[in-house]
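COURSE: Structural Biology Practicum
ASSIGNMENT: Worksheet 4, Part C
STUDENT ID: 0417
INSTRUCTIONS: Below are two proteins. For each, the amino acid sequence is given first, followed by its structure token string. Answer the questions at the end about the second protein only.

PROTEIN I
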Amino acid sequence: MTTQDQSVLETVQRVLANDPASKMLGMEIVYAKTDHCQMSMKVRQDMANGYDVCHGGFIFALADTAVAFACAIENKVAVSASSEIEFLASASVGDTLIATADVIHHKGRNCFCNIMVKNEHGDLIALIHGRQVVLDGQQPSKD
């Protein structure tokens, strides 16, 4: 792992430790390096909708978190500016979802990204294309 990748991983770990929404949803870092992040989340019963499958908002929350971390630059904040999601299959209670986010292009403060969400069996659940904006402000420190 490069020094830059190690710095990104430390940034992602610090942000996740201070992220109550992601912690509440049980998200975990699988792997993170420059321009790439994998996050996992187990689908719980309280994430199911009226059809007894995972609510799409939780799937999107996992993808949105993974892409923000893929855009992580030491001591900078990356936030979603736009996203388009295609739901390809449902996720069931008990499934472990893995979101893989990759930055495909940087332009100024913009990061253009692709995210795939699969279950633990490798079934493709959702595809997302998005744009993150890296803000000028520093990440707040809660240490």
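PROTEIN II
(use this one for the questions)
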Amino acid sequence: MNYHLVPMDRSHLEQVAALERACFPDPWSEKLLEQELYNYMSSLVVAQGEDGTVLGYGAVQAVLDEGCLNRIAVFSQYRRQGVAQAILEAFLRFGRAHLAFLTLEVRRSNAPAIALYEKLGFVRVGVRPGYYRTPEGKEDAVLLTAEFTHEA
């Protein structure tokens, strides 16, 4: 499968909003996604097929030297093909160049995502009890962080 990472722009909004609805119980709206495009602290990237199809996307927010991975999602038919890893690796390259750390939250039950994060160097640093709402109640969030060292 051929794809490339590109900065998200307005032409991706409809597909990314559909991806949000497919992946998250509390999806970001198309309007919120558009606002994030113009948020100077945010960086949104899409994995785009050769025909312009959005396969996945990620959103990072940076404040000074602290980064937070707010979103990463891949349409189910494109999972386990390296799309999420490519997006994460792009954000990690940015982190190594500009940040002290990059942190994220993930559902405790999302073992494949946790395994990918840990494979790429993220370390578990805590838990947010009951952070996510689910149809069954609430689920804990696992906090993971990748720290970057910079020579002075």
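ANSWER KEY EXCERPT:
Q1: The chain has a mean pLDDT of 94.
Q2: The helical segments are 13-23, 30-37, 83-98, 111-119.
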